[in-house]
Amino acid sequence: MVFPEVVALAEALLDPAVAEMVWRDSGAERIRLFPPDGEFAQELGRRLDRPWLGQAGAVPDSSVLSRWWGALVRRRRGMGQPGDWGLDPWWIPREDQPTSVAAQLRTLAQRADGTITWRATVPRPERTWINDKIRDATDLLASLDLHDTAPLATATRQLLDTLNQTIATLDQAVTAVASSAQNAGIP
């Protein structure tokens, strides 16, 4: 499930008019700190249907959002070199990236003596169920029609719905693996 706030935030961050607000809030050519109740905060509060965000200067000051602001401003001011990660508003440092399922499973597979893996600790019926969930997720992704001729909004909604179903299915599998591994004593 995609929360409407996530979609509204994504739309805001992709909107050139919002990028222009960030530019003005930054002082444009004059360098200044971002005002917590500036144009960007007001607009974000409006788009998220939480006007108090901008009024109270309560826009979340996450490191990722700060990097996004900074990259937009640096790019506009011509600071940095082409190809520099600091100019890409969509680049997320590894420490802020979500852990992949593969990395979580590798962590579960590690044991101090290196002899027990999570697969060995999961009973066969559960392992089959987990494999079925992973196969279901793969089938969902395979069913995506990347050449859909439907209007962009419809095709985008279908893509998001399918990705949400896939994520939910994989979450069920990861939860089952983690639960089984923990029950077996794997840290």
Highlighted features:
187 residues; mainly alpha; 2 domains; 9 helices; 0% strand
Brief sketch in words of this structure:
The chain has helices spanning 4-14, 16-25, 39-47, 52-55, 63-77, 101-109, 118-121, 124-142, 152-183. The protein has 187 residues and is mainly α.
Describe the protein's architecture and organization:
By secondary structure, this protein is mainly α. The protein folds into two domains: 4-95, no CATH class; 101-183. It has nine helices and no strands. It has helices spanning 4-14, 16-25, 39-47, 52-55, 63-77, 101-109, 118-121, 124-142, 152-183. Helix 6 (101-109) runs parallel beside helix 9 and helix 8 runs antiparallel to helix 9. The mean pLDDT is 74.
The shape, in one word, is: elongated
Q: Helix content range of the residues, please?
A: 55-70%
Number of helices: 9
Sheet with most strands: none
Low-confidence stretches: none
Topology:
Blueprint: H1 4-14, H2 16-25, H3 39-47, H4 52-55, H5 63-77, H6 101-109, H7 118-121, H8 124-142, H9 152-183
Helix pairs in contact: 6-9, 8-9
